[in-house]
Specification:
Layout: E1 2-7, H1 10-18, E2 25-29, E3 32-37, E4 40-44, H2 49-62, E5 67-78, E6 88-96, E7 100-103, E8 106-109, E9 119-120, H3 124-134, E10 137-143, H4 151-160, E11 166-168, H5 171-180, E12 185-194, H6 205-228
Parallel strand pairs: 1-4, 1-5, 5-12, 6-10, 10-11
Antiparallel strand pairs: 2-3, 3-4, 5-11, 6-9, 6-12, 7-8
């Protein structure tokens, strides 16, 4: 079975495909374009959890053969100093950090409202193996629909999700679609900026994309081997 990798934008997609070397084959899928290299299909599905979920669902449903693994990949903001700029991160938990409701007592996650779910846990063994291969930190990665732009919001997210390493915008959407297709999911990010007040001059997007390429180059054999053996229920 193949591995589906979903990024937000083409620059992230291209950073992933560079890890495999050579020119990728281009394959059309409904509403998008897949870059295929070896066992990996890499798709730029759009920014935000809704676009990511829709693109992932279309790719999974239209594939001529089932995928064995889905990976949400890209760059993201880090809750520094926990995660330095330019470093890779593997999600131990993929968390919908702003899916829920405000209340006089504060934010209530969707689970506190009595419906839905607010997190997915990738296979722990796969998280450990990819983190070891890529030299990546492992910890919760938060999915948000609105990127954080203040120190107050960054502090609130950390207070609600202690130990969170990174904030991004697509992981939970990818995970939701993968779960509905009964396909395991992983999230792999590289840090481009600190979560907090927006300071574009401090962003290191080029460094983060290079780190994403490096992380995929190191972890690709793990992903391919794990997928080949179909360890869907491996702990």
């Amino acid at each position: 079975m193949r591995v589906l990798v979903v990024t937000a934008v083409p620059a992230e997609r291209d950073a992933v495909t560079r890890a495999f070397g050579g020119a990728p084959e281009t394959v059309a899928v409904p509403g998008a374009e897949v870059h295929r290299r070896g066992a990996f299909d890499v798709l730029a599905g759009g920014a935000g959890p809704a676009a990511a979920a829709a693109a992932t669902a279309f790719a999974l449903a239209s594939a001529p053969a089932p995928y064995g693994l889905v990976v949400s990949a890209g760059i993201g903001g880090a809750f520094t100093p926990l995660t330095p700029l330019g470093s890779p991160v593997v999600a131990s938990d993929i968390v919908a950090a702003d899916l829920g409701a405000e209340s006089p007592e504060g934010f209530l996650p969707v689970t506190a409202l009595g419906f839905g779910r607010d997190r997915f846990a990738p296979p722990p063994a796969l998280v450990r193996e990819v983190a070891a291969a890529a030299g990546a930190a492992a910890g919760p990665v938060l999915t948000v629909s609105t990127a954080t732009g203040s120190a107050e919001r960054a502090g609130a997210l950390l207070a609600a999700h202690p130990g969170a390493l990174v904030e991004a915008m697509e992981g939970f959407g990818v995970a939701e679609a993968a779960a509905r297709a009964a396909v395991p999911v992983l999230e792999l990010r590289a840090v481009s900026n600190a979560v907090g007040p927006r300071d574009r001059d401090a962003w290191r997007i080029g460094d983060a994309l290079a780190a994403l390429t490096d992380a995929f180059g190191k972890s690709a054999p793990v992903l391919e081997g794990w997928n080949r053996h179909d360890h869907r229920n491996r702990a």
